[in-house]
Structure formats: structure tokens, C-alpha cells
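Extended Data, panel c. Modelled sequence:
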Amino acid sequence: MQNINSVIWVTGLSGSGKTTFAHKLNAHLRLNLFHTVLLDGDELRTVLNFSNSHFSRNERIELGFIYSRFCNYLAQQGYVVIIATIALYKEIQDWNRKNMPSYIEILMNISQEELEKRDSKDLYSQFNAGNINQVSGLDIAIDWPSAPNYTINFTDYDFDEIAASIVLDLRNSYGK
């Protein structure tokens, strides 16, 4: 196993494929003998006992900083930490770039139309029906990353190929 300290931040709106891609990337990294920790924003909210999924922008930013500090803590112990989370806020992106070793940002880029087709959590349909509010990208302003390391577009969804490319980049960066 290879010990490197890196955080791979997989970000995008709800339904964009963050968790699916993070699992695929984790499998590729483990096959290549990297020590990994996989975190999912939805699961972390449960672990941290944040049961309400409809937070204000400021509350989401605070939660994003908790995720950032936790990822950084784990990375400093020699892990490649993969986190799938929305956290599309400039304050978090800037902090991550400044404070995290070998920070890699992956943006899952998908049209709103496709997100609404997927809508596995009924988030967009509930919002459009007026049943919920405080949805990132709809009534909560987000900040798209200015320079993600990777942008995965909806038409590029060959997750195996993209994950293999990221593994190769990490291997080359660390001479492994």
C-alpha cells in the first residue's frame, strides 16, 4: 500500500453522480495499492447527527468546513481521502486549496434538465412543486469552482477511464 496524503474533493449538484464516481475512483485507487478513505456528504450528515438536509447557505458552508477539516486530518495520516459532497462555495474551495496537501478537485458537470430527470431523492420535483426550499443551485446560490483539476461532463461518463487517469496522475505525482 502507498501512503500519500491527498484529498480528492468530488463536487457537483445533487444527482450529478458524485457518490457513484467516488466509489469507482476508490476501487481504482485500492487496486493500485493506495490507502484510501471514502466519505460521502449524505452519510457524514447522518454520522454527525445533522438530520435536516435543508440548510441555509451559511449552515452549508459551516458543514463544508467541518468536512474539509476532517478530510485534512485524515490526509495528514497518510491517506488518500475521497469525499463526495456538494459544498460548492468559494470559501470552502479557497480553504481547501490553501490548507490541504495535494488537493484535487473534481467537478461533476451536468445540466439541470438531466438532474431533474434523475432526481433520485425527489429533491428537484419537491422544490418545483413548492414543497421544499433551500436547495443548492436552485434557491441557494453556489459558486462553481474556478479551476477544478478535472471536470466530468455528462457526456464523459466513462467513470472507469476517468478514474484510471486520476490514478495514473497520482502515481506520476508521487513517483509510485
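Residues 33 and 88 are 30 Å apart (CA to CA). This feature is highlighted in the accompanying rendering.
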